[in-house]
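Internal ticket #5521
Category: modeling
Description: The requester needs a full-assembly model to guide mutagenesis choices. All entity lines are attached below as received. Residue total reported by intake: 1176.
Assigned to: D.W.
Attached entities:
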Amino acid sequence: MNIITKTIKRTHSGQEVFLFLLIIVLILVIATISNTTYRLENFFDLLKSSSSYLVLAIAVLLVMLSGGIDVSFSSIAAVTAYVTIHYQNTHGGGNVWQAFLIAGLLGVGLGAINAVLISFFNLPALIVTLATSNIFFGLLLENVPTAHISKVPEWVGKFGSGRIFELTNAAGNTYGLSYLAFTSLVLLAIFAIVLRYTGLGRNIYAIGSSREAARRAGISIWRTQFFIYCFVGFLSGIASILNTSLISYVNPFNIQAVTMDVIAAVVLGGAALSGGKGSIIGSFLGVAILFLIKNSLVQLGVPSTWDSIIVGSVLIISIAITMIRSESN
Amino acid sequence: MSQEFLKIHHIYKTFDAVKALVDVNLQIEKSEIHCIIGENGCGKSTLMKIISGVLPYDPLEQSYIEIEGKRMESYTPAIAMHAGIQVIYQDLALFPNLTIAENILTPDRIANRKHFINHRNMHAQAASALMEVQLHADPSQYVNTLSIAQQQLVAISRAITNNVRLLIMDEPTASLGKSDVDHLVQIILKLKERGVAIIFIGHKLDEVMKIADAITVIRDGQIVERLDNVSYVTERDLAKYMTGKDEVSYDPFLPVIDTTQKPVLELQQFTKKGHFSNIDMKLYRGEILGIIGLVGAGRTELMASIFGLDNKDSGTLLVDGKMVEIKKVQDAIHHGIALVPENRLTEGLFTKKSIKKNINVTMLSALLSKLGLLKMDELERHSQLWVDALKIKTPNHLNPATSLSGGNQQRIVLAKWLATHPSILILDGPTIGIDIGAKAEIHQLIRQLVQEKHIAVIMITDEIAEVMQNSSRILVMKEGQFVLEADRKDISEDQIKHALGIV
Amino acid sequence: MNTRIKRYVMKDSVLYFFLLLAVFIVLSIIEPRAFLSKFNLQSMAFQVPEFGILALAMMITIITGGIDLSIIANANLSGIFASLVMYQYLKVAGNEPNSAVIILIITSVCMLSGLVMGFFNGILISRLKIPAILATLGTMKVFDGISTVITGGQPLRNYPPVVAKLANEAFLGIPISFFILLAVAGGMWLLMGRTKLGYTIYMFGENPLASKFSGLDNKAILLKTHIISGLLAGLGGLIMMSRFNSIKVGYGNSYQLLTVLVAIMGGVHPNGGKGKILCVFFSVLTLQCIGSGFNILGFTNYVRNIIYGTVLILVMVINFLYPLIKNKLAFQQRRKIMGSQVPA
């Protein structure tokens, strides 16, 4: 009980509690309207399909906490997905660990480019990453006639459908925690620990809170930012493999298009654009809400063309509410 | 054993072609409260940056820094911190949305390369640090929920936690009210008892004289005077050392005011919860009303309400006898009120824009042609007119506002407001951060304006000398209320001090 | 006389004009036949109007210290609304649709919807105080979403021939749409340089706090800025409708990067407060020449994006280094003139 009260107390803005309640409300409303029941298997399903988004959300959160922004992560993911699978296709198939390695390293490399430009030359992050986003994606498409890969190595299907543990429901179907969900949960946990219990994590918050104070305290802004943008690249790489495993297909265009959705989810989760505010739990809840909304639109029979409007409106309304709440403080 | 902690030998510092420091020798003893004073730009900030290792001094043969008798071969911020030298800058440099505990212990964590955080330990350590400075707050509170005075104490406890031997404080009392200043002095004395040396940079000479064991005066990059026996020094002596000139003496400003006329501005029962209450005030043309109070008295907030920057809870405002509603700044301007704000660089000026653009910004509506376009030649003429009228020292009014000295920058702000032909001119701390010579010039200018243009001026200040020199009538404000009101000829410095509660 | 000429030449807009000239000359030398051909010159003149108008729309929002990510979405949606209204009219008018009325309809609907969307942005940013990046990120999704729902993601086509004339017909060899661009650029130049609103936009972008203290109406400035950028976005949509003879969600998405690029290249400061219309206008023309050159040299779309992205970064790095170098040089100059004691 103590842990629960402490965790609730620690949520500074109350944003996370608010989101959690919102999710409960959403589930209840949708369940009533569309007459579907949310069972445990739906929960596991959602976790699986949102796994790559969750990992990307970690990346976006890291950047936002430090007071920066990065719109190139999706392009990095698109590039790593293609390069990794293509390499594996032409070099004997490989396995999931090799895929993570290649994608992760390549991602780090691309992220490092951002790091140098933003840190060393002190260029505005939004514009730099806008530029590198186009450069990375452009480089991919320039060198590759068709960027889709429909034939993927064997391990992809196995990894994508595998589960850590399995349960059986009333109708005799199996469901459980998929490898994909497990990976994302592990990463969420790791970074939650990093952000709260390591010097690096606290430095990230410090820089976002007050750059000048961080400098004076002896924190190396350059080094911390370098880590951040490299982590972003790494996580983008991992996320790209998760996505590929989910659909057994590489579609760089779809990967590239998730930019704004992930940013929206992280902001929904309580991260402040100016930095210093936000948490892993918040980002998790933000992604959860995003997927719940998309999922419920499907349940309600709303055509997918309405997705954008709904997500956009939710983003605007939630930020507006946040603004109004902070005004009255 | 020697009582010496820090000794600086023949330090020079040159920036490109500018000699910021010339042959500076300084000695600070343990347990000594050493005050360094000097005008803006005299080099005291540069000297502090060199002492804290942030800036390197010119590598001449005879220049070196000695700490506890040991000559320092290389000198970096890390070395300085390791030796126990801590600086508290004016902006405090705290992390606003992190906890007190984290603020206090982050430098320690960085210096000792701690990679893993134990929040419980941090909490406990912070709690004991807070006790040292007698700040009653929960270490898990977020710093941006604290008052400025409390934040300052957090900054000090941060320094103490990191093993301070020499604490440098840059203008620590600038935003503190009286009781907070007392508390601060108490803490400083406690540190002194522990053997900590303290360098205190201040500009409130009365404060400086009260707590200093030794005073060093810097002028134009050189140490001009070191005083070890402070008891015989007067404020006038210090001012003279700082400027190198004798003090300008003022005749008190005693105009004849016709109080049968309607007051140009009248406040009735102005109240804003938490800031000021039941304020009644009358202002007549031809007078300079000086409002003096300590920080937190509510002066700036009161003026903000009059000027439309903030709302009040209740009260009536009359201009020339007629009741008016001022909800935004444009309303105030419409009724002839102008405000020269406290923070010149962030509130008063567009620093990167040209002098011309700054001056013209208030009069744009008046400089439009029939088609609604700006008349460019009029803009040029208007700006030049005011540059000349207020004698703003600049070779070209197209230069950016940052190219001017503090005093001249203030003239820009005055110009832009005088251009609106106000009948009521509010000056909030008009000579803060301006050298003594330029201060006098601005005071003269204000008097001239009042006499020539027959307007009314409200001058808000912290300094008793300034209010005595310039006001025809004085109001003392304390904790949101006017506690004393008198004509200049009927009041003395002591009465003011008594009313402020600082005797 | 010498100093007057020197001061005139040092004027930013003149420098940008010379840059344009230089690029034009270089390209003419590299590929004289292809570049200087009537086809190419006209081609450039046909392509530049929508780009230019959208760039100007982006520019003013950056000057206020924010950004507008929804400009393209706005343009597309405006075009879609205009198409819908036009379709209705065509149904009503039967066999004898009046060309002038068609033009009137699409122009006014584009401008009106652009304006309304810009107004919406303005309210979010000025009244609800939502940071511009987030607000326009959201509205971008909403506008695109509305476009998707209305069109199902398919392009709207089958326009009457008069629509295409706007962007594809020339008057005295110059496309009509280019005249529109000139008019818009001229209007913006007048607005930013000669009106109270323009003046206050610059001041607000430089220091919103001082702006408030000086009696400027910050909320109104932000609102009006976004109304204008919305209006321009709508006009951009009009020209896209005409040039592509259709409109669809996602048209002009590549302009997202390009409009920011050309604004920064044109001297607009990412943090706000600075930027001249003429400089951005010349940068637009310069970039159009470069783009054309890329086409002629056979670069594909993707290589172009790579190069644009790289150029943007290079430009910013130069902007970062330039003032440092300029200061150093200035100091050395003053040192020479005034000896060793130079006041700070």
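Resolution: model delivered.
Comment from assignee: DSSP finds 16 helices and two strands in chain A.
Ticket closed.
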